[in-house]
Amino acid sequence: MTTVIENNQKNDRLEVGTPLLEVKDLHVEFHTRDGIAKAVNGVNYSVSAGETLAVLGESGSGKSVTAQTIMGILDMPPGKVTQGEILYRGQDMLKMGNEERRKIRGQKIAMIFQDALSSLNPVLSVGYQLGEMFRVHQGASKAEAKAKAIELMDRVRIPAAKERVNDYPHQFSGGMRQRIMIAMALSLQPDLIIADEPTTALDVTVQAQVMDLLAELQAEYNMGLILITHDLGVVADVADKIAVMYAGRIVETAPVHELYANPAHPYTKGLLRSIPRLDQKGQELYAIKGLPPNLLKVPAGCAFNPRCDVATDLCRTEIPALHHVTDEDGTELTGRRSACHLWKETLHG
Amino acid sequence: MGRFVARRLLQMIPVFLGTTALIFFMVHLLPGDPVAAMWGDKAPDPVQLAALRHQYGFDKPLVGQYLDYMGKLLTGDFGTSPLDGRQVIDKITEALPVTIRLALFAFAIEIVLGIGIGLFAGLRRGKAFDKGALVFTLLLISIPVPVLGYIFQTIFATNLKWVTPTVQDSNDLTQLVLPALVLGSLSLAYVARLTRTSIAENIKADYVRTAVAKGLPRRKVIGTHLLRNSMIPVITFLGTDLGALMGGAIVTEGIFNVKGVGNALYHAINLKDGATVSGFVAFLVLVYLAAGLIVDLLYAVLDPRIRYA
Amino acid sequence: MPDLTEKKTAGKIPAQATVAVAAKPEKPRSLGSDAWHDLIRKPIFVISALLILLLIVIAIAPGLFTSVDPRAGDLRNHYLTKPDYTHFFGADWFGYDLQGRSIYARVIYGARASVVVGICVTVGVTILGGITGMLAGYFGGWIDTIISRITDIFFGIPLLLGALVILNAFTSRTVWSVVFALVALGWTQMTRVMRGSVITIKQSDFVTAAKALGAGTGRIMFKHILPNAVAPVIVVATIALGGYIATEATLSFLGIGLQDPTISWGIDINSAQKVIRTAPFALFFPAGMLSLTVLAFIMLGDAVRDALDPKLR
After folding, report:
1. How many CB pairs under 8 A join B and C?
2. A103, A213, B195, B245 — which has fewest CB within 10 A?
3. Record: contact A60-C7, CB cut-off 8 A
4. Inter-chain contact A119–B206, Cβ cutoff 8 Å?
5. What's phi and psi for A80, nearest 5 deg?
6. ipTM of the modeled complex
7. pLDDT digits over A328-340, tens only?
8. Residue A302 · residue A319 · CB < 8 Å
9. What is the DSSP string of B238-249?
10. Is the dihedral of CA C279, C284, C289, C291 positive or negative?
C-alpha cells in the first residue's frame, strides 16, 4: 500500500470538492484521577479542498480535543482514542505509524493556535521559526530558509519584513504575531489548515484583518480550512458549513446561511438568541440557562436536556441520533443534520 | 547592551566596598593579636611589639587601617601578613591555581552529570528514572560534605585503591577526581533538580506544542526548542555556583589535603591573621562579582525578552 | 419558550451565553487547604513528617530514649568498644567513642543542638528576610535599592567563611552563637525570595482593587500580599532548614561551631576522623543520624513545594 505522501506527490493539489479529511465516529477519553472524562463522543465531520468548515461550541464542547486528535498532538496518556477513524485522503491516520503521521503534520495538515505569544518560541527569532519548516522538511540551507521566511512575512503583509526577520515574537503586536503563525502554518502549502480560535485573543478590527487574510490565502492555495471558534459573529462571513458541538457531540450541521436563518436544534437556537442585537436596546440579554456539563458525569439521554426549554422524557433517556433534516414536505435538505428528538418542532415551529 | 553592562558595573562598586569593609571590620574586631602570636607562647618584647605593630599600622584607629587597606588594594597590593611577613598576593597566587583546577573539574562534573540526569528525568517525569534521580539527588543533598568526603575516600581510595586518598600533586588530575566529585556533588544534585523541573514545566508549554504540530522530529523539538528555554534558569545557577565553588571548598580541601584557597583561609582565620583573611576575601569577592556579572550578561544573551528591558 | 423581550430589568447583569466549564460539585478550596489535602496523601510527606516529629521529641526529651549520661566517659572500660547491635536502646547499642562515652547516648542528645539550630535559624532568617523582602518589594524606590545593595553585600560572603569569622570572635560558643552567626549571614536569602514574590504579586489586579477601595498600606501588605507571596518563602525555608542543620554540623566538624560540653553530631564526626579505620562505627552513627535528619527536612521541603506549586500538577 503506497503511503499518503507518495500519493500526494503524484497529484499535488486537489480539485475543489475532493474530500480531504473525514472524521468518523471519533471517541476520545481522558483518564484523570477523578474519573474518565469523555471529551469527544462520536464526532463526524468532513472537509473538502477549498471548503471552510466552522466548528462551533463552548469551552469543554470537545472542539479543540478533536482538532488536536486530528493533528496527533494530543497527550496520549491521559488522552485515549477509543473508537473511530480519521481519514486523510482516504487513509486512516489513526492506523498509521508515528513517523508517517509526523510527515503529514505540518506539511500536509497544519494548525494555527489561539495565543500566538505563547505558541511561538520566545527565544528564537521569527525568521528562524518560519525558516525551520524549510530547513527540516525540505533540506533548505540557512540562507534559503531565511529568504523564504522573508517571502512568507511579505505574503502575510508584515511591514518591513526584511528588517524584522531577526526580531523576536515579543517585539510584534498581537495581530502581527497571529499572521506569523498563519505564515508558519502555510509555509509548505498544506492541504488543510486547522485554525483553533485564531482571533479570540485579538481585538475586533484586527480580527477582521486576520480573517480576511485567512480567506484570501485559502482561496489562493485551494486549501481546506477548519475554523474552530465560539464566536458566531466571526463565522458568518468565512464559513461554508457549520458544525455545532456540545458535550463532545455534534448537535447540528448546516450550510452557514441556513443555520443562521433556520436553526434545527434548541442549543443552536439558544446560541443565536444570545447574540446581543442593536434593536434589543434596553432589554435583558438572553442566556441559555444552566452550565455546560461536567465531562466526568455527562447527563443521560441528550446531554443538553437539563438546559433545554422543550425537553421531554424521551430526551432525558434516549441519546438522539444525528437525524437528516427535511423541509415541510419531506425533501431532505442537503448537509443539514440535527441531533434532537424534536428537530421538526424546532425547525418549523 | 552597553548601558546594561555599565549599569551593572556601577552597581558592583558599592557592593565590593561594602563586602570588603564588612569582612575587614569583622576580622579586625576579633580578639587576639596576630603580631603577639608571632612570639608563640613566650611573652613578646614590648619594644619590638610596638615597632612591628607600627610597621603594620596596627596602632592606627581601625578606620584609618581600613582606608590604608583600601588604598593599597586599589594599587593591587592585597596586604602583608603579619604572621610570616609574606605578601598576601603571593599566597593568593600560590593557592589559586590549585583551587581553580579543582573548581573547574567539579564544575565540569556538575554540568555533564547534572544536566544529563536532569534532562532524562525531566523527559520521563514520574517514571522509574525520574524517581531514581530524585532519590539519588536527595541523598547527595542530605549527606553533609564531610561525611560524603569520608565515604568516598574510604570506598574508592582506601578499599578499592582506585585513587590516592589525599592529593600529593595537584597537577595530576587523576588525584583531583575524588575531591572534585565530592565538591561537585552538592551542586550536581541542585543542577539536576533544577534542570528536571525546568524541563518538566517547559515540556507543557504552548510553543512545544507548536513545534510538534509543525511535524518537527523529536530530537529537534527537544534539542532546539525545549532546551533553549529550559536551560536559562540552570545556566544562571551555574554562574553563581562557580563563584561559590571557588570560595567554599574549605571542608573538601581539608579532607583531601588540597592546598587551595579554602585551606589557606581556614588556617588564616584560626591564626587570627586578619590581613591574609581580608586579602583573600577581597579577591574572592571580586571573583564572585565577576561571575555574577557574566551570569547576568549570559542571561541577556539567552533570553531576548530581557535584552531591551 | 418564555418571552423575555417584554421584561425591562435595567441594571441586572445576566450570565453570559458562553460560560466556562462547571466547577466541581464540592466546596471550592483555598490554595492552603488544597495543598494540605495533597500533602496528606503523599507518602514522602507523611514519612518525613513523622521522622521530624520523632526528632523533635528526641530533642525535647532525650531522657525518654536513653538513661545514660552522654558526657560520662569511662576510658578504661569502654574505649572504642564495638557496638552490640542486639542491645536495642542500650548504652552500647552503637558502641563507645574515643573517650569511652556511649555513642548511642551522644547521638540521642546531639539531636537537640541540630534541631534547635535548624528551627531557630530558619525562623530568624524567615522573619528578618521576610520583613526586609516585603519592604523592598512593596515600596521599591530607594528603600529597595538600599536593601538590595545590602543583600548583595551579604551574598558576596560565602556562608562558611563568614561563619568562621564571626564564630572566631566568640570565646565560648553555644548554640546561640551559631544561631546568631547563621542568621546574620543567611537572612539575605529569604529577602531575595520574598522580594521577588512580592514584586510579582504587587502587580496583580486584586492588589490594585484593594488600593482603589482605599485600603491602607499595612492592610494591603498583610492581608492581601503576604498570604499570596508567602508560598515560595515557605518552600525555600523548609528546604533551607535541612541546609542549616548540615551547616551547623560542618562548622562543628571544622572545630569552629559548637564546643564541648555541648553535644553535636558534627563534633563527634570530627573526633571520629582519627579512628575511622579501626572504629568506623564511631563515624557512621552520628553521620548517619545527621544525614537522616537533613534528609527528612529536605524531603519535607520537597513535598511542600510540590503541593504548593500549581505548575507542576
Report:
1. 123
2. A103
3. no
4. yes
5. -155, 130
6. 0.84
7. 777 878 888 888 8
8. yes
9. HHHHHHHHHH--
10. positive
